[in-house]
Amino acid sequence: MSLRNDFFWGGSTSADQCEGAWQEGRKGINAVDVMTAGDVNTPRAITLDIDPKKNYPSHKAIDHYHRYQEDIALFKEMGFRMYRFSIDWSRIYPNGYDTKPNEEGLQHYDEVIAYCRKCGIEPTVTLCHFETPIGMFKKFGSWLHRDAIDCFVRYCETVFKRYNGKVKYWLPINEINTMTDCPWWAGAISEDASYKERMIAAYHQLIAHAKVVTLAHEINKENQVGSMYGGIFSYPATCHPDDIMANETFMKNYMFYVDVQNRGYYPSYKRKELARKGIVLPVQKEDDDILRKGVVDFISYSYYNTVVVGKDTKDFDLISFTTGYTNPYLEKTKWGWEIDPVGLRYSLNYMYDRYQKPIFIVENGIADYDVLEHGSVQDTYRKYYLKNHITELKKAVDYDGVDVRGYLWWGPLDIVSSGTGEMKKRYGFIYVDVDDQGNGSGTRYKKCSFAYYKKVIQSNGEDL
Ligand code: BG6
C-alpha cells in the first residue's frame, strides 16, 4: 500500500464556475460575473457593466447553489473524502469593502459545509477563487490599494469564526501567481495593468495572505492553511545554457509567490529584479514581520500540463499555455494543453525539494467535448489520463519519498471553463446537461469514468 490510509481523494470546484444564482441571497457582483463567454479562439471579454445582450456564463452556471445536495451526494457515492469548493467573497461582503457581512450568504455555506460533513466529506475552502467583488475595483482600484488588505482580512475573519471547527483546511487565494499574466482573474486588476501595477497588487495580496494565515492559527490552532500555486512547470527547450537560464528565469517569475508564502520573505532574486526595473513596492514597516509570521502549513497546486521554455520565449499565454515552443514527445488536448503524467511526478519532486512540506494536488484533470449518448459518456480517454497521473503520483511517493496528502480532480462534474467560459470544455465524471448558452435541463448523468474513479478511491489507488 503506497498511499497513506488517510489519503484525501476527492474533487474541486469554484463558486463562480458552478453556483449560478448570481443575484440570489443578496450576493454582490464579482470579477467573473462581468466576463462574457469565449471559446478556444476567442478570449472572454470584461464588461464592467452588464450588457443584457451578452452571455455571462457564471450567472446560471450549473445551479450548484440550489443543487449542491444532489451533487455532493454523487461525490459521496464515488467515495470522496474531500471536497474543495470556494466561498464566493461577494456573497459574504457584496461590495468587498462593506463593514457588515451578509447573513444570507453565510447561511448558505453553513448548509453546504454541514452537508459535506453529513456525507463524511472533509470540506476544504478556497476563500477567493477569482471572485473578487468588483465594488472594490470601482471604489479604490481593488488590490492596487492597500485598503484591499483590510477588506480581505475582515472577510476571512468572519468566515474563520463562523466555520470554526467545521472547516480545517483553508486556501486563501487560488493560483495567486495568475496576477502575473491574468490580473483580472487574480484580483480584479485591469488586464492592461503595467507590470509594476501587477507587482504592487501581488505585494498587497501576499501581505493579506500572510495576515490571514496568522489569523487562522490564532482562531484555531488546528487550522491548516496552504499556498495554492497555479501549476506552471516548464522544461528547458534544449541543453543550451541560454535555454537553461531562460527556463530558470521563467520559473522564478511564478515561484516567487510560493517562496514568499513558504519562506516568509521576498527572495533575493525577486528583490534584484524589482530594483533593476525601478519598481519600488509600497512597503510599510510592519510588513516584514507580517510575512515572516504568516507562513503556510502545506503546499497545494493545480497540475494540468507542462510547457517548454527557451531563450526565444517572449510571451506566455496562460489560457492556451503557449510559450513559442512545443514538446514533441507529448500529445495535446483539444485546447492545446500538453498531456504529461510524468510531469506530475517531476512537479511533486520540484515542490517537495523546494519546501519540504506536505503537498496536496488540488486540481488535475482533462477536458473534452463530451457527448451524451444513451444517458452516459464513453470517456475512456479520461480513465487513461487518471490512471497515468495516479501511477506517476504513486512513484513520487514510493520512489522519491514525496509527502503527498491528497489528490483532487478538477471539475468532478461539468462546470463552466474558467479560461474560455465554455460549458462544452467538460472535465467531469458527471455530465451536466447545460450548453454554452446556459440552456438545458441541468440533469446530472454518470459518465463511464464515474465508476472508474470510485474503484480507484475504494482501492486507495491500488486498482488502476
Ligand atoms: C485552474 C483554475 O487554473 O484551471 C480553474 O483554478 C480552472 O478555475 C482550471 O477551471 C481549468 O481551466 P479551464 O480554463 O479549462 O477551466
Automatic annotation (TrEMBL):
GO cellular component term, pick one: cytosol
Source taxon at top rank: Bacteria
Alphabetized InterPro entries for the sequence: GH (IPR017853), Glyco_hydro_1 (IPR001360), Glyco_hydro_1_AS (IPR018120)
Chain coiled-coil ranges: none
Catalytic-site annotation from UniProt: E363 (nucleophile)
Alphabetized GO MF terms: beta-glucosidase activity
Gene Ontology biological process terms, A to Z: carbohydrate catabolic process
UniProt-listed SUPFAM superfamilies: (Trans)glycosidases
A Pfam family hit: Glyco_hydro_1
Keyword Zinc: no
Keywords: Glycosidase, Hydrolase
Family: Belongs to the glycosyl hydrolase 1 family.
The protein, known as: 6-phospho-beta-glucosidase
Upper taxonomic lineage: Bacteria, Bacillati, Bacillota, Erysipelotrichia, Erysipelotrichales
